[in-house]
Design brief:
This protein has one domain. The protein is globular, with a radius of gyration of 18 Å. By secondary structure, the chain is mainly β. It has four helices and 15 strands. 48% of the residues are buried. Strands 1, 6, 7, 8, 9, 12, 13, 14 and 15 form a nine-stranded mixed sheet that branches. Strands 2, 3, 4, 5, 10 and 11 form a six-stranded antiparallel sheet that branches. 5% of the residues lie in helices and 29% in strands.
C-alpha cells in the first residue's frame, strides 16, 4: 500500500496566533466561524452510512483554559467515535495497550470499546514518528438504560492510556444545541446530527465499484464539537499534540468473531486523517483479531501546535 500511494508524513500545523473561545453546540464548524483552517480533510467516502456516520474535517483550536475539537459530520445510533490524543511522544505504547487487567475484563467503568482497541496498530512502526496516544476520548451514541426511550444520548469518557484512569464525563443529549453533560468534569461535547452534506456513499449508485473520489467534505458544517480543559490532558501553549479520530460500532455484539466481555467492535472506514480509499475494517476484538491500520499510506494522525 505504501509503495502504491507513497508515504505521507505527519502535518505540523499552527492552529491560530490568537485563539478564541468556541461555542460548543455542534453547529457552524467551519473555518469562518472557528477562525482557523482545518487540520485534516476526509479523503474517503463513507461505507458506514452516508449522513449517518461520517467524519468530514478536523478543526483544532484552544484558549487559555480549553482545547477545542470540531468535526463536521455525523455519528449515528449504536456507533461510537474514539479520538486518540498523543500529548507526549515519549510515553504511550505501540501497539496500543488499552485493556485493563485481563483477569477482570468486564469490571469497572473502563470503556468497553477501548478494550477492543488493545493491540491495535495505528501507524507503521518502521516509519517514525510512531503514534503512541496518551488519552482516548470515547463518545458512544445510543439509547441506554435509565435514559429516554426516544431521545438519542451520548455516553462520554476520557481515559488516560498510561495509567488506566477513567474520567466518566457523563451523558449528553444528541441534537440538544449545547455541550452540557451530566458530569462535572468541565468537558463539553455537542452533537448536531443534521448534516446532509460532506462526503457521499462509498459505492457508486449501482453498488458495483467503490467511489474513491468522494464528494466535497468541506461542505459539511454541523457535527461534533468538543471542549476539553487543558489540565485534563496536560497541554500547554506551543506544545505539539497529535490526534486520530475513528468511528466504530459501540461494541454491543460479537461482530461474528467473539471477544472479551462477550463482544467485539466493528471498524468503519471513517477516520481523520482519512484512510486513502479503504473500505470498512470489519470486526476486531483486541484478542484474536486486532485492528491494523499500519499499511495505510498516511500516518493516521495529525500533529498540531496548540496555540
Amino acid at each position: 500500500m505504501r509503495a502504491l500511494f507513497g508515504t505521507l508524513t505527519a502535518v505540523l500545523l499552527v492552529a491560530s496566533a490568537s485563539a478564541a473561545t468556541q461555542t460548543i453546540d455542534g453547529a457552524n464548524i467551519d473555518s469562518a466561524t472557528w477562525g482557523v483552517a482545518s487540520v485534516a480533510i476526509q479523503d474517503t467516502n463513507t461505507w458506514f452510512g452516508n449522513n449517518f456516520n461520517e467524519l468530514d474535517q478536523l478543526f483544532v483550536d484552544a484558549d487559555s483554559g480549553n482545547v477545542f475539537l470540531g468535526i463536521p459530520g455525523n455519528l449515528a445510533d449504536n456507533n461510537a467515535l474514539t479520538i486518540f490524543i498523543d500529548t507526549d511522544p515519549a510515553t504511550g505504547s505501540h501497539p496500543l495497550a488499552t485493556a485493563p487487567d485481563p483477569n477482570v475484563p468486564c469490571v469497572g467503568a473502563y470503556p468497553r470499546i477501548l478494550r477492543y482497541f488493545d493491540g491495535a496498530l495505528l501507524s507503521d512502526p518502521n516509519l517514525p514518528p510512531v503514534f503512541t496516544p496518551d488519552y482516548a476520548l470515547t463518545i458512544s451514541v445510543g439509547k441506554f438504560p435509565g435514559q429516554s426511550d426516544t431521545q438519542l444520548v451520548m455516553a462520554c469518557d476520557l481515559t488516560n492510556l498510561n495509567t488506566g484512569e477513567v474520567t466518566v464525563l457523563g451523558i449528553g443529549a444528541v441534537d440538544s444545541g449545547n455541550g452540557l453533560l451530566t458530569g462535572d468534569s468541565g468537558v463539553e461535547i455537542a452533537i448536531d446530527d443534521t448534516n446532509v452534506d460532506g462526503v457521499g456513499e462509498y459505492f457508486t449508485p449501482g453498488g458495483e465499484t467503490p467511489d474513491l473520489t468522494g464528494d466535497d467534505p468541506t461542505t459539511a458544517t454541523t457535527g461534533i464539537e468538543i471542549a476539553i480543559p487543558r489540565t485534563m490532558i496536560d497541554v500547554s501553549s506551543g506544545q505539539t499534540v497529535s490526534f486520530f479520530a475513528y468511528i466504530t460500532n459501540n461494541a454491543q455484539d460479537d461482530a461474528g468473531i467473539g471477544g472479551p466481555c462477550g463482544a467485539a467492535a466493528y471498524g468503519s472506514n471513517q477516520a481523520l486523517p482519512g484512510l486513502a480509499g479503504w473500505g470498512n475494517m470489519a470486526g476486531f476484538n483486541g484478542d484474536t483479531v486486532v485492528l491494523d491500520l499500519s499499511a495505510n499510506p498516511g500516518d493516521n494522525f495529525v500533529a498540531v501546535t496548540i496555540p
